[in-house]
Amino acid sequence: MSAVVTVRGLNVAYGTLEVVKGVDLDVAQGEKVVIMGPSGSGKSTFLRSLIWLVRPKSGKIVIDGIEVAQQTLMDVRKRVGFVFQHYNLFPHLKVIDNIVLPLVKVHGLLRGEAVQRAREALQLVGLADKERAYPLQLSGGQQQRAAIARAIAIRPKVLMLDEPTSALDPELVEEVLRVLEDIARRGTTMLIVTHEIDFALDVADRVVFFEGGKIVEEGPPDILYNPKTDRFRQFLRRLH
Ligand code: ADP
Ligand code: MG
Fold first, then answer.
1. Greatest alpha-carbon span in the chain
2. Atom of ligand 1 at shortest range from CA of 213
3. 101 C-alpha to center of ligand 2: Å?
4. Model confidence at 13: pLDDT above 90
5. How does it sit in the membrane (predicted)?
6. Residue 49 pLDDT level (bands cut at 50, 70, 90)
7. How far is the CA of 39 from the centre of ligand 2 (A)?
8. Read out DSSP for the chain?
């Protein structure tokens, strides 16, 4: 299997605070990797640094065969769908325009094509009837599904999601996880920070446990039942 994401010796710091410390990771075509770890362990920084939303101090990142560098950044970002904890929709744009705008402005699609793709994506996340709504007229779960639609409409080589359900009221989490499961089943390569154990068990090919800016443990999802390290075991115990 060819790797869609390759990370070697990645170091990221905020000033003198070292947050990601020598991380190596490969994500194969179609693979679903779930990242877990305590708050402050560097998960968000790691994910963001892969597309230089935070610029790494050192290390090598290759996405879809392109080494991430200043000259390739636009090209790389076009290949990555990113979903944040907070939906990051433009409040002054209708749901459909939130999706169409980047397709036209960044990806160079004609408006007609973009609208068609946006409608397909909205259909997939169950929001076909909300295309004319403004984000703030939607529930949190619907807003996050719209953000997911925006990310998949670009047909990304890899979809990265940073705690996509952790800002949601508990009763809205399920609808978002169900949409993500659908997307996973379609073969999309995914890198997801989440603490949803059932989701990880159902969807992940591999679970990675982050602590102190390092990968402390990784393996197939059944490591969630049978963690090898005390630190992962303690972390999982605290989740229940
Ligand atoms: P996680 O997502 O695992 O909770 P983060 O990557 O958000 O971890 O944070 C890792 C560490 O980096 C924390 O100590 C956090 O306070 C710090 N940090 C995160 N973002 C910034 C920032 N923009 N500037 C300075 N420090 C930051
Ligand atoms: Mg985080």
1. 54
2. 10
3. 27
4. yes
5. Peripheral membrane protein
6. very high
7. 7
8. --EEEEEEEEEEEETTEEEEEEEEEEEETT-EEEEE--TTSSHHHHHHHHTTSS--SEEEEEETTEE--GGGHHHHHHTEEEE-SS----TTS-HHHHHHHHHHHTT---HHHHHHHHHHHHHHTT-GGGTTS-GGGS-HHHHHHHHHHHHHHT--SEEEEESTTTTS-HHHHHHHHHHHHHHHHTT--EEEE---HHHHHHH-SEEEEEETTEEEEEESGGGGTS-SSHHHHHHHHHH-
- Asked if residue 143 lies in contact with residue 89, where contact means CB atoms within 8 angstroms, the answer is yes
Q: What is the pTM of this model?
A: 0.96
Pocket test for ligand 1, best of 10, 12, 14 (most atoms within 8 A of CB): 14
For residue 75, report the distance from its CA to the centre of ligand 1, in Å.
26
Q: What are 148's two structure tokens?
A: 């997911």
User: Using one digit for the tens of pLDDT, what is the confidence trace for 146-172?
Assistant: 999 999 999 999 999 999 999 999 999
pLDDT at 185: 95
- Which residue, by CA, sits nearest to atom 15 of ligand 1? 40
With a cut of 0.95, is the ipTM above it?
A: yes
- What percentage of the chain carries pLDDT values higher than 70? 100
